[in-house]
Amino acid sequence: MTEAGAHAWIAEAHEAETVARLLIAFRDHYGRDWPSDDAFRAGVERLMGDPDTEFVLGATGPGAPAGGVVQLRFRFGLWRDGGDCLVEDVFVAEEARGGGVGRAMLEHATTRALERGCRRMELDTSEDNAPAIALYESLGFFNRAAAGQPRDLYFRRHLPHE
């Protein structure tokens, strides 16, 4: 259950600037300065036009400004014979933390994944982000395999850009 008042919703086209603002704050939280603010704004507008991408916004209560964002990417998964939902860019602004915003957004994301026929949700986080790990595990996410089986590892490779 979400904490009293915290709620989440699917961002609509007119909320693109809010989504971009929160993602820029996420970038800044990591001490980065790239991609540029303009690149984030353009990217959000582009993704909002993609039927396989949704952004979830969250707030601490009715009338409160959006204080969190989650990006959802949907695809068909052969090994699941159904949809996969990749959960990306889970971010709650400092002033909204502790109010249930993250939980509300991820619960709403789960509802959307089920509505879209998904059989699996995936996300990643840093192993030193204990609050996020605790939240994800409380919602049923796990990073282990069945007893006696090796853990799944996720790798990434950054490709050069021009």
3D structure, described in words:
With 162 residues, the chain is an alpha+beta fold. The protein has one domain (7-138): 3-Layer(aba) Sandwich (Aminopeptidase), CATH 3.40.630. It has helices spanning 16-29, 37-48, 101-115, 130-138; strands spanning 7-10, 53-59, 68-77, 82-92, 118-122. A hairpin with a 4-residue loop joins strand 3 (68-77) and strand 4 (82-92). The longest helix has 15 residues, at 101-115. It is globular.
Overall pLDDT confidence: 93
Spatial sequence of strands, sheet with the most strands = 1-2-3-4-5
User: What is the number of independent domains?
Assistant: 1
Report how far apart the termini are. 46 Å
Helix content: 25-40%
Q: Which fold name corresponds to the CATH topology?
A: Aminopeptidase
Give the CATH H-level superfamily.
Gcn5-related N-acetyltransferase (GNAT)
Query: Count the strands?
Result: 5
| Total of helices | 4
At CATH level 2, the architecture is 3-Layer(aba) Sandwich
Largest sheet: 5 strands, mixed
Overall, the morphology is: globular
User: SS-based structural class?
Assistant: alpha+beta
Text of the CATH class: Alpha Beta
Oligomer: single chain
Strand content: 15-25%
Order of helices and strands: EHHEEEHEH
